[in-house]
C-alpha cells in the first residue's frame, strides 16, 4: 500500500516553490505595472504638450463585450514612411487624430486617449492590487506552513538541572 503524500506528512517542496513564486511574481507584477502605467501617463502628458498632430487611418476595429479588449489598428504616415499600430479602444470614425513624437514617430497619443503602449500586458491599473494579493497569499501560506512545521516538531527535552558541588563534593 502506498503512502499518500499530504501537506502534513509529505514533501513540502512543491508548496514552498509555489509560495516562493507567488512571493516573487506578485511584487514583480505590482511594481512592473506601476512603472509601465506611470510611464504611459507621463508619455500622454509629454505628447499633449509637444506632440505633432497627424491624421491616422483606421484599418481595423474589433469591438468586444469587454471594453478593455476593444482594439483598433491604425496606419499613419510621417515623412513618407508608413507606420501601423494596434491600440486599445474604439475610434469615433474612419480617421483619428494622433499626436506623434517628432524624434520617435512610433510613439504617439491617439484622440481616444490610447498610446502606442496601451496594449502592453502590464498597462492595467488592476494588475497592481492583483500583484499585492498574490504576494500576500504566498507570504500567508509560507507563514502557516512554518507554524505547522514548528507545531508538529517534537518538544525538546527540558534542560538538565546542573548541580554544583563544593570542594568536598557535596551539594
Q: DSSP strand (E) fraction?
A: 15-25%
| Element order: H for helix, E for strand | HEEEEEH
Structural class: alpha+beta
What's the alpha carbon Rg, rounded to whole Å? Answer: 30 Å
Helix content: 25-40%
Shape: rod-shaped
Arrangement of strands in the largest sheet: 3-2-1-4-5
Give the termini separation: 57 Å
How many helices in DSSP terms?
A: 2
Largest sheet: 5 strands, antiparallel
Uncertain ranges: 1-8
Mean pLDDT: 84
Number of strands: 5
Region (Disordered): 148-171
Transmembrane segments: 12-36
Keywords: Membrane, Transmembrane, Transmembrane helix
Biased composition (Polar residues): 162-171
Quick summary:
The chain crosses the membrane at residues 12-36. This protein is α+β, with helices and mostly antiparallel strands.
Structural topology:
Layout: H1 13-50, E1 52-62, E2 71-78, E3 81-88, E4 95-100, E5 108-110, H2 127-152
Antiparallel strand pairs: 1-2, 1-4, 2-3, 4-5
Region (Disordered): 148-171
Keywords: Membrane, Transmembrane, Transmembrane helix
Biased composition (Polar residues): 162-171
Description:
By secondary structure, the protein is an alpha+beta fold. The protein has a domain at 15-121. It has 2 helices and 5 strands. The chain has helices spanning 13-50, 127-152; strands at 52-62, 71-78, 81-88, 95-100, 108-110. It has a 5-stranded antiparallel beta sheet with strand order 3-2-1-4-5, with helices on one face. Strand 2 (71-78) and strand 3 form a beta hairpin. Helix 1 (13-50) packs antiparallel against helix 2 (127-152). The longest helix has 38 residues, at 13-50. The model is unreliable at 1-8 (pLDDT under 50).
